[in-house]
Design a protein that fits this description.
By secondary structure, the chain is of the alpha+beta class. The protein has a single domain, classed as Aminopeptidase (3-Layer(aba) Sandwich). A 9-stranded mixed beta sheet has the order 1-2-3-4-5-9-6-11-10, with helices on both faces. A two-stranded antiparallel sheet has the order 7-8. The longest helix has 20 residues. The chain starts with a strand and ends with a strand.
């Protein structure tokens, strides 16, 4: 039996095993330092949940909903052990909670953003921790769920606050309307500037990407 438990402080006894799990799944530049989590976890708009099995953290997900933009963002979904149904469990619990958040705000969501590594471009595929978290597997799962990639040369600021540009990823979107084939560029800019407002050191490549988006009317959604 899996339990869905929200973490709202680094003092939560399940936070340390969650942070250790993050370090086994993602590269260092993708993981926020332990102490720096205190503020985000206290933000009511950031939802961090772990999947517990027998008191052990076996999975986790983080997400947020922006009612003013009517979009959600999946920060991460982690499966710590295979063959336990963790991915499905996290997906259904997250969808139910996001529906609740949208209804509470009186909005109808357009869809949900996510970032995913492109292992066909990435120099190293050593990260991933367990087989279900292999970059190839993660990408295919998002594709099967219905995510599409935005047509842009995507980079994001590193979460280690070093101000480096993290590349070899795609920004993706899961549209509520599966026939949707493009997003307003202004929406993408607003989302990215909001989402990365917590990182003060923006690399030049990120600023250039934002500048190019500002000059566009929309961004195509392509198969992932």
């Amino acid at each position: 039996m899996l339990t869905y438990h929200r973490i709202e402080s680094i003092q939560d006894p399940y936070f340390r095993p969650l942070h250790e799990l993050l370090g086994t799944i993602f590269p260092p530049e993708e993981v926020l330092a332990y102490d720096l989590w205190e503020g985000p976890l206290q933000d009511p708009g950031i939802h961090v949940y772990v999947a517990l099995s027998g008191g052990e953290v076996v999975g986790a997900t983080e997400y947020r909903y922006y009612p003013d933009m009517k979009v959600a963002m999946t920060d991460f979904t982690i499966i710590g052990k295979p063959a336990m149904g963790i991915g499905r469990f996290l997906l259904t619990r997250r969808e139910k909670d996001l529906r609740r958040l949208a209804e509470a705000s009186g909005t109808e969501p357009l869809g949900m953003f996510a970032e995913v590594y492109d292992p066909y471009r990435a120099a190293s595929h050593e990260f991933g921790g367990v087989s279900p978290m292999n970059p190839y597997v993660r990408r295919e799962v998002l594709s099967h769920v219905g995510y599409k990639r935005l047509e842009l040369d995507y980079v994001h600021p590193s979460w280690d606050h070093a101000g480096e540009a993290v590349a070899e990823l795609d920004l993706c979107f899961l549209p509520k309307d599966e026939e949707l084939d493009r997003l307003p560029a202004a929406l993408v800019v607003r989302f990215l500037e909001t989402y990365y407002s917590a990182l003060p050191n923006k690399p030049e490549a990120w600023l250039t990407m934002i500048g190019k988006l500002r000059a566009e009317e929309d961004v195509r959604l392509l198969p992932l």
